[in-house]
Amino acid sequence: MSEQRKSSFATVNPYTGKTLAEFPAIEGREVDAVLETADGAFDAWRMRPVEERAALVGRVAGLMRERKETLAQLITLEMGKLISEARGEVDLAASILAYYAEHGPGFAAREPLDVEEGQAYLVNEPLGVLLGVMPWNFPLYQVVRFAGPNLVLGNTVLVKHAGICPQSALALEVLFRDAGAPEGVYTNLFVSHEEISRIIDSPVVKGASLTGSERAGAQVAERAGRNMKPSLLELGGSDVFIVLDGEGLERTVGAAVAGRMANTGQSCVASKRFIVLADVYDDFVERMRRAFEALEPGDPADEATTLGPLSSERAATDLVEQIRETVEQGAELLTGGDRIDRPGAFVRPTILTGVKPGMRAYAEELFGPAAVIYRAEDEDEAVALANDSQYGLGGSVFCADVERGRRVAERVETGMVWVNHPTSTQPDLPFGGIKRSGYGRELSQLGMREFVNRKLVRVLPPDAELRGIAG
Q1: Residue range 58-73, pLDDT digits in tens
Q2: pLDDT tens readout for residues 217-253
Q3: At residue 407, what are phi and psi to the nearest 5 degrees?
Q4: In this predicted model, what pLDDT tens digit does every residue of 316-342 receive, in sequence order?
């Protein structure tokens, strides 16, 4: 095993830069043994009544709530999330598991079909062992979004978590174990990127889900497609935040700051492109600038801190380079754009204006505390700007006239649009995107429709007329 693989999973506190723990990756026969265990567990797990499977997921939700403070502190330690937001993530993750514990059996139930003769129905059957490749920015929420519904359905899951949050990954595995999950039903994997391809190739694995970068998503989708296996991708986003009027502008700006700065801007569905009609533009920009400059950097574990570090030194360096190059290309830097002179992976909250096609910030996702604000002369120009993007994950529209907001929302080319609220998440609403933001849907009933065999069963009497057969 190479030294690189030995140290590929490490907790590095982004506030101090100190390495706190390292974990070795496994490979080869060790991975094969994990796959064999998960495959064997599936045979028994799928045969358990769905109510029992749901009850296990519900117990995990309960344990997560009991251990909320410990889990939140771990998230903050590993990727720098503000402690208040880390607690919120634990609450969200637990609510998703509780939702599927309650509603999952109904979602998995037999679905009768209306036919003229005999009976017909759909049976929702699990596929088998699934691989989930998960990111660092929401160490709990994004894992349970994948694992919860699929475990209730009867699949077993392997989770390859991000290299910078290994202790959060292990804590999740412990939660499932303590809730009574049989060995192999939920398994954390410390494996290299190279090993992921071999896992997807294995006949044991029946599908793959990835939340992460475009590059990683393309690799997983290509590998799954080569093996004729289903995949689900939740990739990057460059969500629009459209402001159509000045009614309630104080609330709108507050929503804009929250939508951009939550998780220090490191969210796929963060508001990143602000498109503001001309008669409101100057006021909006000035209020946004003041709000950004008022954010107070500090220890993310301190309740008083309002601006945490980015997840890593590399993340901070990459963001500053994107901003620098965009300014060199002719954009106006209204505030920020540089590192904060203090230890830790801090970047000063940034606002860019005058960004045009061909500039880096026009085409790329800015994953951190940086906002791009555009002026639009009318509703049509706002929609055209919104749709001129390779991404299509979320988006939001703000205006006093709800019907107007609904009309504009339906014109935005994206997977999710919220009116008078930044893009958000709740268990009973589907989550997913289009374009280069990925495909497939998680959460709600649709979260149990991705890795499932919706098998038709057609029952006819022995003397039924034989009809033409086509295929």
Answers
A1: 999 999 999 999 999 9
A2: 999 999 999 999 999 999 999 999 999 999 999 999 9
A3: -65, -45
A4: 999 999 999 999 999 999 999 999 999
- The CA distance from 185 to 176, in Å, is 9
CA atoms of 454 and 195, how far apart (whole Å): 30
Q: Which pLDDT band, with edges at 50, 70 and 90, does 471 fall under?
A: low
Residue with token string 């994990």: 34
Residue 425 to residues 222, 268, 422, 430, Cα–Cα distance (Å): 28, 12, 10, 8
Catalytic residues: 234, 268
Give Cβ neighbours of residue 456 (< 8 Å, ≥ 6 apart). Answer: 113, 120, 121, 122
Q: Which of 269, 271, 281, 244 is nearest to 402 (CA)?
A: 244
Side chain identity at 84, as an amino acid letter? S
pLDDT in tens, 341-362: 999 999 999 999 999 999 999 9
Do you know the residue count of the chain? 471
Strand partners, 230: none
Half-sphere exposure of 28 (CA within 13 A, CB side): 4
Alpha-carbon gap, residue 339 to 352, rounded angstroms = 16
Do 200 and 132 contact (CB within 8 A), yes or no?
A: no
pLDDT of the residue at 469: 74
What pLDDT score does 5 carry? 44
The CA-based dihedral angle spanning residues 380, 386, 387, 392, taken in that order and rounded to the nearest 10 degrees: -150
The percent of residues above 70 in pLDDT, for the chain, comes to 98
CB 128 within 8 A of CB 42: yes
- In b/e form, how buried is each residue of 199-216, taking b as 16+ CB within 10 angstroms? bbebebbbbbbbbbebeb
Rounding to the nearest 10 degrees, give the CA dihedral for residues 217, 223, 228, 230.
-20
Q: CA 235, CA 367: separation in Å to the nearest integer? A: 12
How many Cα atoms within 13 Å fall on the side-chain side of residue 393?
Answer: 27
Set out the domains of the chain in order of their start, with CATH numbers: 3-235+437-456 (3.40.605.10), 239-419 (3.40.309.10)
